[in-house]
Write a structure and sequence with these properties.
Strand content: under 5%
Oligomer: single chain
Subcellular location: Cytoplasm
Helix content: over 70%
Coiled coil: 29-56, 86-124
InterPro entries: DivIVA_domain, DivIVA_fam
Family: Belongs to the DivIVA family.
Keywords: Cell cycle, Cell division, Coiled coil, Cytoplasm
Order of helices and strands: HHH
């Protein structure tokens, strides 16, 4: 068990023949007591400082652990967000491709219908033109025909008779 300043102060030495000078021994012991008290105080201060530092280390260690966990959660969340965004992007692309295919198919269908309609109109126009030409040619033939002259003679004769 270590000595305390009180143990040093209360220490009594036995006297011998021609012993040490009592005042000198007492002065020396007083100096030892002061130094010993100073050391004990410093030890207590250092122990308190050590305790405070250990608390700070513990606190910062907890903060570090919490930050590490937070970083892991943030990384996992970022990865989830990234995966979800990727999935959503793929769905959007698929939907866009479907819409593009549908639009292209509708456009092709309309183009085919328009082409068929154009061909049909060309045929109808050709038939109409042919019929119109035949009608005009028939009318020209009628005009060229000499029968017109014979048709107009009875009317001319009638006019002469009436005059």
């Amino acid at each position: 068990m270590p000595l305390t300043p009180l143990d040093i102060h209360n220490k009594e030495f036995s006297r011998g023949f021609r012993g040490y000078d009592e005042d000198e021994v007492n002065d020396f012991l007083d100096q030892i007591i002061k130094d010993y008290e100073t050391l004990i105080r410093e030890k207590k201060d250092l122990a308190e400082e050590k305790r405070l530092l250990e608390e700070k280390v513990s606190h910062f260690s907890n903060i570090e652990t919490t930050l590490n966990k937070t970083i892991l959660v943030a990384q996992e969340t970022a990865e989830e967000v990234k995966q979800n965004a990727s999935k959503e992007a793929k769905l959007i692309v698929k939907e866009a491709e479907k819409n593009a295919d549908r639009i292209i198919n509708e456009a092709l269908s309309k183009a085919r219908k328009v082409t068929v309609d154009i061909e049909e109109l060309k045929k109808e126009a050709s038939v109409y033109r042919t019929r119109f030409r035949m009608l005009i040619e028939a009318q020209l033939e009628l005009l060229k025909n000499d029968d017109w002259d014979s048709l107009s003679k009875p009317f001319e004769e009638e006019e002469i008779v009436q005059k």
